[in-house]
Amino acid sequence: EDLDLGGFPHYMAKEIQEQPESVERMIRGRLDDRFGVARLDGLNLTPRELRGFSRVKILGCGSAYYVGQIGATMIEELARIPADAEAASEFRYRNPIIEADTLYIAVSQSGETIDTAFAVEEIKRKGGRVAGLVNVVGSTIARACDGGVYLHAGPEIAVASTKALTNMAVGFAMIALALGRVRDLSNADGQRIIAAIRALPGQIKAVLDTEPLIAEHAKAAAAANSLFFIGRVRGYPVAREGAQKFKEISYRHAEAYQTSELKHGPLALIDESLPTVAVVPADELADRNLAAVQQIRARGGAVLAITHEDVDFGELDVPRIVVPRTEPELDPILLTIPLQLLAYHAALTLGYDIDKPRNLAKSVTVE
Ligand code: AGP
Question: Taking 70 as the threshold, does the pLDDT of residue 258 lie above it?
Answer without folding.
Answer: yes
